[in-house]
Amino acid sequence: MASGAVEWIKAALLEVQEYVRMLGKTGRGVLTRPFYYKDVVFQFDAIGIGSLTVVLLTGTFTGMVLALQSGLTLDQFGARSMVGRLVSASIVKELGPVLTGLMVAGRVGSGIAAELGSMMVTDQIAALRALGTDPIRKLVVPRILAGLIMVPFLTVISSAVGMVGGWIVTVGVLRVASSVYFQDVWMGLIKPFFLGFAIVSIGCHVGLRTKGGTQGVGRATTNAVVASSVAVIAVDYFVTQLLITLMY
To answer: How far apart are CA 237 and CA 248, in angstroms?
Structure first.
């Protein structure tokens, strides 16, 4: 039992070491040549535009159900008029970044892990190295840059449509005067940079560590979704704590 725990710890430390090494190589790839601009633009489309539909639907219905539930709860205290402020603050500060991160983790994190994992088990990445192409520069750097830029973009859209959805329910169902309050917007704009980086970097790391043929690709896809989803929640807490300490 003890030896099994030791092996698990060693394996976990090895994964952390390899993850940090990948991040170091990614940093060098961003700052030095060659730089694959076309791949970055392609990933903007794949990660950002490709995730737009699910983010729009998630944001809209989250805002609507939050307004509906908040209105029923606030009625008990005679504070239904505060529903607009509650919805806007909740979505901008917390639900928008986190739900967008989870949706992107499910769609993009799994896709990256499956794509890179398939390339690993079919020796395509080994072929890139043999041809003198750095897989980190070619495959990882464009994805991480796209995640850093497009996840905040998606979060802004998700928060906006969430507040619109909440406004529709607030005015149409709860019969409250149209009022939406924009407060603490910065917290909702800073978090997505950290969430996007965590999602894409974990997907790349898991994909590049794939072994065991097609079964390994399936395991890598599952591990990427689980790890990136947990990372979204954990990073959200730590960034929130940091921002509260710095801003309040």
So the answer is: 16
Q: Which of 225, 244, 239, 158 is nearest to 195 (CA)?
A: 239
pLDDT tens by residue, 174-188: 777 665 444 455 667
**Rounded alpha-carbon distances, angstroms, from residue 17 to 21, 22, 217, 221, 232:** 6, 9, 21, 20, 20
Q: The tokens of 34 are what?
A: 């060659």
Q: Which 8-state DSSP code applies to residue 51?
A: G
Query: What residue type is 133 in one-letter code?
Result: T
Both tokens of residue 96? Answer: 């928008």
pTM over 0.70: yes
- Max Cα–Cα distance, the chain, nearest Å: 70
Give the Cα separation of 56 and 175 in Å (integer): 25
Token pair, residue 241, equals 């704590």
Q: Contact at 8 Å (CB) between 214 and 27? A: no
Residue pLDDT, tens place only, 182-235: 445 566 778 889 999 999 999 999 998 888 887 888 888 999 999 999 999 999
Task: Tell me if 87 sits within 8 A of 63, measured CB to CB.
Answer: yes
Q: Please report, in angstroms and rounded to a whole number, the separation of the first and last CA atoms in the chain.
A: 47
